[in-house]
Specification:
heterodimer; A: 264 residues; alpha/beta; Aminopeptidase; six-stranded mixed sheet; 9 helices; globular; B: 199 residues; alpha+beta; 2 domains; three-stranded mixed sheet; 6 helices
């Protein structure tokens, strides 16, 4: 959750991008032509939690998993209606999907954008507001070491990599998939958070970086939106209303539209 | 070396004596040296833990714990006395037990009260591995904010109080777990993050 200077990861990011591209696992090249949306064909929306895993619970019995799905379906409809690309949900009903499978869905479908939707929870009943996360790498200096190692040995490694056999190396690369997109993810988070702040009337908790599992393995710009606090009775009532859910979807959609118009 | 030369001629008993002394020294080095940490932890895991050996006065150590406040999103420091020694790992277990037990004042623990600390192991590489009972994942339905607070209260408490701890790995019921509640990646070691702590 530390606000890492972005350039700390930039060098590694460039390398990871090159490696991933070399392995043909990277759907959006690091050098997309003018306009972020140019090369995006598929977007993945991830309704947080599901099935046995309910996520946070509200005092009035509302469950995070239901609210995230409702918002996700609304956002999907908006994007499909107004933007020219396919939208895939990591779940379309109330089922368990592991975190690993969620990022795998994004990568298998060669997603160009990934948005995970959540409702927040805290023990403090007063905690309130909306925030948008993107990945932090500060928790893992191990990665910095790996990246340094890969950088020094990249030519040797690239000639040795056989995607079918070297599982460990593939795992390491996939583990770092998001590193290549931190900058774009940060920009996307900022634009979406700006719209959430403008539309929802909730407290603006800003953009933050955190070591979230769901974001780490995704090979495209990826953010996690915490719409409001389901643990706060007042915000729980809002989150449960269709009207507020539609506003959240609209805000994310507007942020997304601004991101796609942004010159590279 | 000199001993050996001398011993060549006269008594074989002397050679035997010298050799057995050398052997004894090697055995002592073996147990006190490299193997010490593991050997101690092994014993710890199998006998009931007593705070201090009977008769010896229990020394106290002051530790800083990290709790939540109802009025903001930060972690707040609170100091606490725990029984000192004999190892960092045991002190760390006590510190975390206090963190779970909760604040003496107005603060709130970010961990479920039912959680047990199964074991703490501090490796020579500076990585502390904490094993919690499954309650830590099952007794709360975490939101992102809560899960971050829970993880970093643990990580900061260990890194702040124990110089030997540089990074922290969290296990649940003896095994690696993806996340506590669907958010924070537990499969890697955490560095402390004091940006979450109130000034």
């Amino acid at each position: 959750m530390k606000r890492d200077p972005i350039d700390r990861t930039a060098r590694g990011a460039a390398l990871a991008a090159a490696l991933l591209a070399a392995l043909v696992v990277c759907p959006v090249s690091g050098q997309a032509p003018a306009g972020q949306g140019q090369r995006i064909q598929t977007m993945v929306i991830d309704p947080g939690h599901g099935g046995m895993e309910t996520g946070a619970k509200g005092k009035f019995g509302n469950l995070e998993k239901d609210i995230t799905l409702a918002i996700s379906l609304k956002l999907k409809a908006l994007v499909e209606r107004n933007m020219g690309f396919e939208v895939v949900l990591t779940r379309e009903k109330d089922v368990d999907v592991s975190v690993e499978n969620r990022s795998a869905i994004a990568n298998n479908r060669k997603a160009g954008l990934f948005i995970s939707i959540h409702a927040n929870g805290a023990v403090q009943k007063k905690a309130a507001g909306s925030e948008t996360f993107f990945l932090s790498l500060n928790a893992t200096d191990e990665e910095t070491r790996r990246l340094a190692y890969l950088e020094n040995n990249s030519s040797a490694l690239q000639s040795r990599i056989d995607p079918s056999s070297d599982d460990d190396l593939m795992m390491i690369l996939w583990d770092m998939a998001q590193t290549a997109y931190i900058k774009e993810s940060g920009q996307l988070a900022e634009l979406v958070q700006g719209e959430l702040d403008a539309l929802l009337g909730t407290r603006n908790r800003g953009i933050k970086q955190a070591p979230f599992k769901i974001l780490a393995g995704v090979a495209c710009p990826a953010i996690l939106v915490e719409a409001a606090f389901i643990s706060n009775p007042e915000e729980e009532q809002k989150l449960a209303s269709e009207d507020f859910q539609a506003k959240v979807a609209e805000a994310i959609y507007r942020g997304l539209a601004r991101y796609l118009r942004m010159p590279k | 070396m000199a001993n050996r030369k001398k011993a060549k001629k006269p008594k074989p008993a002397l050679v035997l004596g010298v050799l057995s002394v050398v052997l004894l020294v090697l055995v002592i080095i073996f147990f006190i040296g490299g193997g010490r940490e593991k050997a101690k932890r092994f014993v710890d895991a199998n006998i009931p833990k007593t705070p201090a050996v009977a008769g010896e006065p229990a020394e106290a150590k002051t530790v800083t714990l990290f709790f939540l406040d109802d009025d903001d999103d930060f972690l707040h420091r609170e100091t606490r006395q725990i029984v000192a020694g004999p190892t960092d790992a045991e002190e760390a277990e006590r510190a975390l037990a206090e963190l779970i037990k909760g604040s003496d004042g107005k603060y709130v623990s970010p961990l479920p009260p039912q959680t047990k600390v199964r074991q703490v192991f501090i490796g020579k590489n500076g990585v502390a591995t904490v094993d919690f009972s499954r309650d830590i994942a099952e007794k709360f339905s975490y939101g992102s904010t809560m899960e971050l607070a829970a993880v970093y209260a643990v990580v900061n408490t260990l890194a702040f109080n124990f110089k030997a701890v540089k990074k922290v790995v969290i296990l649940v019921e003896g095994a690696e777990k993806e996340t506590l509640g669907g958010h924070v990646d537990l499969t890697r070691a955490f560095l402390p993050d004091y940006s979450l702590v109130a000034r």
